[in-house]
């Protein structure tokens, strides 16, 4: 009786979230070196010319073998192919379809590229893509996940390899939400594809054994996708999809390619165009699992640095529904 009385207001408040906090999402805006490219909202019109392949649902994809795990549900080719350069900074603004903040805080963000080969990317069939991994961000070193920053309104970031060969590429940036992944098959995949044309005169290409297919690259039993221990203290995340491609870790020609790992992007990017920073520091121990270490002291002042147009716009937007982890799991497990 007492418990019920205490729980009632809580549950009522929680249930009132449901119509608004459809707790999934999509990439609303791609930013390349400060230029924004807006996407179209799932289930909305396709009126905005965009390099972002429009998903038809913000809902997660379940199952590593899902045929839509390449570029998301629906996701026909987009109309635009937009310019980038080796070393360009890419940012993705993840939202729910009602444009509130991304709702999850557990799991990695991973970025892949695939050459569109002899065709332009607006003609390229993502089912034939051979992907290579360029970036992955996971735990934050404080018992949480970098993904929480996205929930709190930050954009997700990665940089293109400094030595990336020119040409058209499909970018596959994904969030994997693992709040339910204590059960096998319950990892939530949110892939998003964008079409870019890389200029410059880099020479970096992936090796054959680094190329992946989606579906194919992941298995539901991967330790990064089925994570029974994820909420236990000391959990060490193992990213799915193998290591980051050597053309990235070789530092864009600044060293001879002996390194096998890099730090998560959130710790290794200079945040100002006037800053100079050394190439990624090899750690020599498998994949990075958190971003608490840094090769760049500038990072300590990261939060002070300007976020160009994002900051202002996002402060105007509706605040996130801060559904707790437990409540998120409860609601996911029942209603969504
Ligand atoms: C994060 O990285 C730091 C430095 O590399 C390390 O000391 C710490 O144990 C790591 N934490 C987790 C949770 O992986
Ligand atoms: C992405 O970079 C911006 C600064 O440009 C920063 O504010 C934001 O926190 C970064 N996002 C993540 C997930 O690290
Ligand atoms: C091509 O490479 C040269 C150095 O090899 C560099 O000076 C030049 O800026 C590069 N051009 C572009 C467009 O990046
Ligand atoms: C790469 O550099 C390392 C350390 O500087 C050196 O030991 C190694 O022989 C070099 N490898 C090649 C292929 O040049
Ligand atoms: C961070 O910024 C403060 C001033 O805002 C400066 O005194 C300090 O040296 C900076 N630290 C780093 C690591 O750049
Ligand atoms: Cu969700």
TrEMBL record:
Residue span of region Disordered: 250-336
Gene Ontology CC: one annotated term: extracellular region
Catalytic class of the enzyme: oxidoreductase
Keywords, sorted A to Z: Carbohydrate metabolism, Cellulose degradation, Disulfide bond, Hydrolase, Polysaccharide degradation, Secreted, Signal
GO function terms (MF aspect): cellulase activity; cellulose binding
InterPro entries in alphabetical order: AA9, AA9_LPMO
Pfam families in UniProt: AA9
Biased composition (Low complexity): 283-302
Primary location recorded for the protein, binned into one broad class: secreted
Gene Ontology terms describing biological process: cellulose catabolic process
Location(s), subcellular: Secreted
Spans traversing the lipid bilayer: none
Keyword Secreted in annotation: yes
Comp. bias regions, Basic residues: 303-312
Extent of the signal sequence: 1-23
Domain Auxiliary Activity family 9 catalytic: from-to ranges: 24-226
Catalytic activity of the protein: [(1->4)-beta-D-glucosyl]n+m + reduced acceptor + O2 = 4-dehydro-beta-D-glucosyl-[(1->4)-beta-D-glucosyl]n-1 + [(1->4)-beta-D-glucosyl]m + acceptor + H2O
Bias kind Polar residues: ranges: 262-277
PANTHER family: GLYCOSYLHYDROLASE FAMILY 61-8 PROTEIN, PUTATIVE (AFU_ORTHOLOGUE AFUA_1G12560)-RELATED
UniProt remark on domains: Has a modular structure: an endo-beta-1,4-glucanase catalytic module at the N-terminus, a linker rich in serines and threonines, and a C-terminal carbohydrate-binding module (CBM).
Function as written in the Swiss-Prot or TrEMBL entry: Lytic polysaccharide monooxygenase (LMPO) that depolymerizes crystalline and amorphous polysaccharides via the oxidation of scissile alpha- or beta-(1-4)-glycosidic bonds, yielding C1 and/or C4 oxidation products. Catalysis by LPMOs requires the reduction of the active-site copper from Cu(II) to Cu(I) by a reducing agent and H(2)O(2) or O(2) as a cosubstrate.
Protein's name according to its UniProt entry: AA9 family lytic polysaccharide monooxygenase
